[in-house]
Amino acid sequence: AGADAVGLLSGWPGGSRGLRLAAQLRHLQDATAKPAILELIPNELDLRSAHELLIAAHLLGIRLVLVDGGVFAGTSAGTNSSDQRRGADTLDLLALIARLNAGRDLAGSRLESPTAFTVGVRVPERDVAAIEAYEREGAHFLALQPVYAPARFRALMATVQTRLPLFAEILLLPDAATADEIDNELPSLSVPDKLKRRLVADPDEDVRGVMRFLGHWRDRLAGVLLLLPDARTHAAELLLARARR
Fold first, then answer.
1. Is residue 76 part of a domain?
2. pTM summary value
């Protein structure tokens, strides 16, 4: 349908986890003939588990990585601790990927061949101040979390200062029930009641809203990441077709 890359939303409740994720992404990459994106969720991975997953992804030909900055996990990106009992944070994972790209594994031994990951960070609305730290740790691009209130997104864009390519994430809402689920499961992605009422009246309202968003912000963004909450793909296919015009 025109996507430049594909992935699995592992941060969504019930999403894919563990080493099998790398194999699933390779299958998706082969099926679509598009690069696959590996999503890493801090605090759900210790450094050893993250290392194993990244090496598996590297061996399977996965080259794109997106590290969650605290949107889908209750983690603070501003701290940097290697305490593996509580899991790695965003900066830990960025440092690990930089080490692998430099040809060294977690223990410091030389890899047979360096990894070649391009890595981005999903930036929470509440934690824009961490962008400078992400840049220092070697992030190649940034993706702003989904924001459903236009005024809040304008305020967010006004505060973002970065030299990196900037993407916006759009988590599609196929119906009002999905919006309610997001409010219950992921409070950081709260959906305004006004939008919920519009979705009840017309489920296609979300597609129209996204098209208005793209028309307004196209020149300020490097692109968008379309996130799907379930297997329904019609809205994403429609948006991709229209965005390519």
1. yes
2. 0.90
